User: Fold this.
Amino acid sequence: MVVKVAINGYGTIGKRVADAVSWQDDMKVAGVVKTRPTYECLTAIQKGYKIYAATSDKIQSFKDAGFDVAGSAMDLFNEADIIVDCTPGKKKEGGTTGEDYKKIYEQIGKPAIFQGGEKHKLTGLSFNAYANYEKCIGAKYVRVVSCNTTGLLRTLVPLHRKIGIEGVKAVLVRRATDPNDSKKGPINAIQPEIKVPSHHGPDVQSVMPDIKISTMAVVVPTTIMHLHNVMITLKKEASADEVIAAWKDAPRVILVNSKHGFESTAQLMEYAKDLGRPRGDLYEIPIWQDGVSVVGKELYYTQAVHQESDVVPENIDAIRAMMNLESDKMKSIEKTNRALKIIK
Ligand SMILES: NC(=O)c1ccc[n+]([C@@H]2O[C@H](COP(=O)([O-])OP(=O)(O)OC[C@H]3O[C@@H](n4cnc5c(N)ncnc54)[C@H](OP(=O)(O)O)[C@@H]3O)[C@@H](O)[C@H]2O)c1
Assistant:
């Protein structure tokens, strides 16, 4: 069975999920939804993705701009087996576009995946492949958690399963916006998130309720990655080597070393480009191995998150779980990893 996937919202996440779907042999892109005839239509057409206008009254504007349109979003939703909703997390007037679309997906009885800008309560089921793939098998509505939450889950879950976590405190240093955005700041400032805990801790618990975690966050003037300083009280004393061993088998976690010149997020992004990754994406969560420090039961480490891409393989695994394409999570993870050339 080849599952037909509709991509609603062809922005930072949507275009990456579309490409990742196109690299699998058990799913294909049925089409992508655009609200405006912008430059993204050029590459969508080049890649062979059919474009659908968000509403039928917009079809003419695409034709006027010289782009072929296959129909309206409703035509695509009816044609597809599953919709990956990658629309923006917040609307100016409140709520989210995903919330509005969910009503439509429900009306036509189509399963859908939402992104981390939506609240957990929209689906009641939040997803991370290694943490809870099994729970999402055959599910109708699933939310793939945000880039930061995905990053935290990737490194916490293996530790929790192999050594045991008593409690986590983390400070998240967040990028201001994505590289393609020329409007958002801060320009020359550090902006603290005043609400404590930041939403990230509770979001981790939407997938792993038994991990005690509290987070704080600041936003800094960079566009390329987030960085997390993580402090954990382990359930038992462990050496740095035992901690590192727990991550060695963990999917989509890699260990890097400052002695190899990985001094900052800049070199991590350069590494992804050197690997020949499309768009310079780094799907894995890098942890600085030489920054792992354990004092008794207290563990300290630093990791980075490529916000534009770490959730992409998770979306592919979520499609496989929801469409009953694979019941074994490790088989799905490995299949996705092979197709995306993920290191492990
Ligand atoms: N960027 C990140 O770092 C990141 C990481 C993880 C998760 N997420 C989550 O992923 C979701 C998408 O974020 P994003 O960063 O990809 O946003 P984005 O770059 O702004 O892309 C969203 C796209 O949706 C389209 N859109 C707007 N209104 C629409 C509508 N009514 N119907 C269909 N398409 C519509 C827009 O394209 P057109 O108007 O040109 O059609 C826009 O480019 C959010 O929930 C976000 O929180 C983002």
Notes: The two ends are 26 Å apart (CA to CA).
